[in-house]
């Protein structure tokens, strides 16, 4: 884990940058359960796409001036959820960027609507055993502080996966290097946005390979903010 975290972020790559351009100002929003890898994958994906990265949980903590466990303990979950919806609304107002959301965020219908309007959602889908192994490494997730974390997680999966399935795209998260998942997300986005790999022939009538339907001036704006 640590050695992965210390690895330098990837450089922007041609296809990923072309995909960022094709988002035409929308943000890429990673959704999924705790432990799915939204933040670690999102940070590397953003670097590859030449976009700023933002972690919604970190922004909520900054706005509240306290940690998520403390928000849950002092103010309760409904207060956290209200703040979460507000913060994600604000983050989506200034795209394009890669946004990692907390596991419960997409369950809010208003947030789902906003993400559909101003973003493109990718569900990082993971099996229970993968999530459980990862979640057990950390103790800062209030929802998992129960006598039977496996049962809690199974219940959350049963409630949430049918809703997560409303995401525009799904990529399977599993125990492989983050860059493998990043490659798969870029390929999935390229297929969805009909972006051809740079250097390949474009089909007749299509924009030049590696270009975007959005045209000039809509490119990635890495200078907007720094990776957090
Ligand atoms: C939550 C997930 C957490 C955090 C909070 C609640 C959830 O984020 O927002 O503890 O409801 O699943 P991660 O998914 O980033 O762990």
TrEMBL record:
<keyword id="KW-0479">Metal-binding</keyword>
<comment type="subunit">
    <text>Monomer.</text>
</comment>
<feature type="region of interest" description="Disordered">
    <location>
        <begin position="196"/>
        <end position="228"/>
    </location>
</feature>
<keyword id="KW-0963">Cytoplasm</keyword>
<dbReference type="InterPro" id="IPR031322">
    <property type="entry name" value="Shikimate/glucono_kinase"/>
</dbReference>
<keyword id="KW-0057">Aromatic amino acid biosynthesis</keyword>
<dbReference type="InterPro" id="IPR000623">
    <property type="entry name" value="Shikimate_kinase/TSH1"/>
</dbReference>
<keyword id="KW-0028">Amino-acid biosynthesis</keyword>
<keyword id="KW-0808">Transferase</keyword>
<comment type="pathway">
    <text>Metabolic intermediate biosynthesis; chorismate biosynthesis; chorismate from D-erythrose 4-phosphate and phosphoenolpyruvate: step 5/7.</text>
</comment>
<dbReference type="InterPro" id="IPR023000">
    <property type="entry name" value="Shikimate_kinase_CS"/>
</dbReference>
<comment type="function">
    <text>Catalyzes the specific phosphorylation of the 3-hydroxyl group of shikimic acid using ATP as a cosubstrate.</text>
</comment>
<dbReference type="InterPro" id="IPR027417">
    <property type="entry name" value="P-loop_NTPase"/>
</dbReference>
<feature type="binding site">
    <location>
        <position position="81"/>
    </location>
    <ligand>
        <name>substrate</name>
    </ligand>
</feature>
<keyword id="KW-0547">Nucleotide-binding</keyword>
<feature type="binding site">
    <location>
        <position position="39"/>
    </location>
    <ligand>
        <name>Mg(2+)</name>
    </ligand>
</feature>
<comment type="similarity">
    <text>Belongs to the shikimate kinase family.</text>
</comment>
<dbReference type="Pfam" id="PF01202">
    <property type="entry name" value="SKI"/>
</dbReference>
<feature type="binding site">
    <location>
        <position position="103"/>
    </location>
    <ligand>
        <name>substrate</name>
    </ligand>
</feature>
<protein>
    <recommendedName>
        <fullName>Shikimate kinase</fullName>
        <ecNumber>2.7.1.71</ecNumber>
    </recommendedName>
</protein>
<keyword id="KW-0460">Magnesium</keyword>
<keyword id="KW-0418">Kinase</keyword>
<feature type="binding site">
    <location>
        <begin position="35"/>
        <end position="40"/>
    </location>
    <ligand>
        <name>ATP</name>
    </ligand>
</feature>
<feature type="binding site">
    <location>
        <position position="160"/>
    </location>
    <ligand>
        <name>substrate</name>
    </ligand>
</feature>
<feature type="binding site">
    <location>
        <position position="57"/>
    </location>
    <ligand>
        <name>substrate</name>
    </ligand>
</feature>
<feature type="binding site">
    <location>
        <position position="141"/>
    </location>
    <ligand>
        <name>ATP</name>
    </ligand>
</feature>
<dbReference type="GO" id="GO:0004765">
    <property type="term" value="F:shikimate kinase activity"/>
</dbReference>
<keyword id="KW-0067">ATP-binding</keyword>
């Amino acid at each position: 884990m640590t050695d992965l975290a210390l690895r330098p972020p990837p450089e922007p790559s041609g296809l990923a940058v072309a995909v960022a351009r094709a988002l035409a100002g929308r943000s890429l929003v990673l959704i999924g359960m705790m432990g799915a890898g939204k933040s670690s994958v999102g940070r590397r994906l953003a670097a590859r796409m030449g976009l700023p990265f933002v972690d919604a949980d970190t922004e909520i903590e900054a706005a509240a001036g306290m940690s998520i466990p403390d928000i849950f303990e002092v103010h309760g979950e409904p207060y956290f959820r209200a703040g979460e919806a507000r913060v994600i609304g604000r983050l989506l107002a200034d795209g394009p960027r890669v946004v990692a959301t907390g596991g419960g965020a997409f369950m809010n219908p208003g947030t789902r609507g906003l993400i559909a309007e101003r973003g493109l959602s990718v569900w990082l889908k993971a099996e229970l055993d993968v999530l459980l192994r990862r979640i057990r490494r950390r103790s800062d997730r209030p929802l998992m502080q129960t006598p039977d974390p496996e049962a809690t997680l199974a219940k959350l999966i049963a409630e949430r996966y049918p809703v997560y399935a409303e995401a525009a795209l799904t990529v399977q998260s599993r125990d492989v290097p983050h860059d493998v998942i990043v490659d798969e997300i870029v390929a999935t986005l390229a297929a969805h946005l009909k972006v051809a790999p740079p250097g390949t022939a474009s089909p007749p009538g299509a924009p030049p390979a590696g270009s975007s339907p959005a045209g000039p001036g809509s490119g990635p704006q890495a200078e907007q903010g720094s990776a957090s």
